[in-house]
Amino acid sequence: MIIELTTEDYQKLLEDAQERFPTEACGLVAGLKEDDKIEVKAVYPMANLDESAEHFTLDPKEQFKVVKEIRTEGYQLIGNYHSHPATPARPSAEDKKLAYDQDALYFIFSLQDEPVLKAFEIEDHKEVTELKIELV
Amino acid sequence: MKIKVNGEEVEFETELTVSELLEKEDVEMPDMVSVELNGEILDRKDFATQVVEDGGQVEFLYFMGGGTGHELYRRTA
């Protein structure tokens, strides 16, 4: 399984992470799922209710609104993203503990050194699988 | 009766509560789900008693949060 991400959406994620630094940026990712690839079609920066450099929580009210927008566009909810302002691009213990949606992909943008974006599946709050992101 | 669940029409034989609906939708952790019924976000304590009527529109989504903190922290919606 490969994830296709446009350079425009990559840039949008990067700018969101950098502009909100040191607060964690977060939002939803939408696109189209096929058998062998996932095509990201849109990313939606959203409020971080925690306004924290170490945590994020999406606002359910905003989530409902964005999910309906995604549906109207004809896309599927692919997952969410958040930034790690000062730690690597891998799921933390908290990320795994709070990964309740088994169908979601979890994108993490690290700004620890050079910006690094990675995407993961998280199963049963412990099994982490990284998926390859291809910029198109 | 027919209701819409996350935008898709679903048919049930009888009316059902939100809790029953979440169970039928294979939601394993209803405590970590937010539910909107006919445009209004429900209080989680009402899931067991709130009935979804014919023509109802239900949206549900999982809590999404996380972070880099060393200690587990969670805001309960």
Radius of gyration of chain A: 14 Å
- Give the CATH H-level superfamily of chain B: Beta-grasp domain
Which residues of chain A sit in consecutive blocks of at least 5 with pLDDT less than 50? Answer: none
Mean pLDDT of chain A: 96
Largest sheet of chain A: 7 strands, mixed, barrel
Structural class of chain A: alpha/beta
Provide a count of the helices of chain B. 1
Q: Which regions of chain B are unreliable across 5 or more consecutive residues at pLDDT < 50?
A: 71-77
Q: How many domains make up the coordinates of chain A?
A: 1
Helices, strands, pairings?
The complex is a heterodimer of chains A (136) and B (77).
Chain A: E1 2-5, H1 7-20, E2 26-33, E3 37-46, E4 55-57, H2 60-72, E5 76-84, H3 93-97, E6 105-110, E7 116-123, E8 127-135
Parallel strand pairs in A: 1-3, 1-8, 5-6
Antiparallel strand pairs in A: 2-3, 2-5, 6-7, 7-8
Chain B: E1 2-5, E2 8-11, E3 16-17, H1 18-24, E4 33-37, E5 40-41, E6 51-52, E7 57-62, E8 65-67
Parallel strand pairs in B: 1-7
Antiparallel strand pairs in B: 1-2, 3-6, 4-5, 4-7
Explain this structure:
The complex is a heterodimer of chains A (136) and B (77). In chain A, a hairpin with a 5-residue loop joins strand 6 (105-110) and strand 7. Chain A is of the alpha/beta class and 136 residues long. Chain A has helices at residues 7-20, 60-72, 93-97, and strands at residues 2-5, 26-33, 37-46, 55-57, 76-84, 105-110, 116-123, 127-135. Chain A has a seven-stranded mixed beta barrel. The relative contact order of chain A is 0.22. Helices cover 24% and strands 42% of the residues of chain A. Chain A has one domain (2-135): Cytidine Deaminase, domain 2 (3-Layer(aba) Sandwich), CATH 3.40.140. Chain A is globular. The longest helix of chain A is centred in the N-terminal third of the chain and has 14 residues, at 7-20. Chain B is mostly beta strands and 77 residues long. Chain B has a single domain (2-62), classed as Ubiquitin-like (UB roll) (Roll). Chain B is 9% helix and 36% strand. Chain B contains one helix and eight strands; from the N terminus they run βββαβββββ. Chain B has one helix at 18-24, and strands spanning 2-5, 8-11, 16-17, 33-37, 40-41, 51-52, 57-62, 65-67. In chain B, the strands form two sheets. A five-stranded mixed beta sheet of chain B has the order 2-1-7-4-5, with no helix packed on it. In chain B, strands 3-6 form a two-stranded antiparallel sheet. The radius of gyration of chain B is 14 Å and the shape is globular. At the A-B interface, strand 4, helix 2, strand 5 and helix 3 of A face strand 4, strand 7 and strand 8 of B. Strand 4 (55-57) of chain A pairs antiparallel with strand 8 (65-67) of chain B, so a sheet runs across the interface.
